[in-house]
Amino acid sequence: MSKVFNSIIASGFADIVSAAGFVGSNLVGASIGGALDRLAAGRAERARTIFLEELGQGLRPPRDAGEIDEFVSIVYRYMSKAAEGAARLNLRLMAKVARGQLEGEGLYASEFLRYSEMIASLTREEVILLATRFAVRREYEAAKKTSDWNDTSKINDVVRDRLVPSVFPTGAHMTAALTALQRTGLVWPAAATLGGGYVWQDTPLLDHIVCLAGFEAALATEAN
Description:
Number of strands: 2
Shape: globular
């Protein structure tokens, strides 16, 4: 699939260069095609290595033909995201989702497709923000500092203290990231503050996806 796609791009590039009056457009197009092939091969190898690192650790094989079909669909989607240029961290998170499904709830391609779309869109800063929010809530729960999670303003303050300015230059930058994360359904503005801002609340989906994808472990592995 990648070779066909690359050849289409290369030929289109040659047409554009030719229309613009440049000489040697066929040679340029061929060069672009070769570069695209090398880029696709590099991305595929990177994705393959990450996937095998996560799933090649003595996990059980698929149980039956139905699970094999689901697994093939999952691998296809995973490699498609790699071909589209997903970053190493995002690929690691997606591979961990597949592993989590295999170890726990079972292989469901439809669920993986949903999670992979969400994960592929995340920036590193957003992953750090989500992982930190999850960790802070866990700490509060363990210390019994709050029982019903209505005191989200304190949790937001702790998260801000940990991430500003080490990850986000200012609190406004972190708020912008939280606002953007509403697209994922992982956070939402639970209440307005007197200062005109919001008290942010995590949704139950955040707990599920952070545990399933192992955000902290993925960040530790892909530290750079």
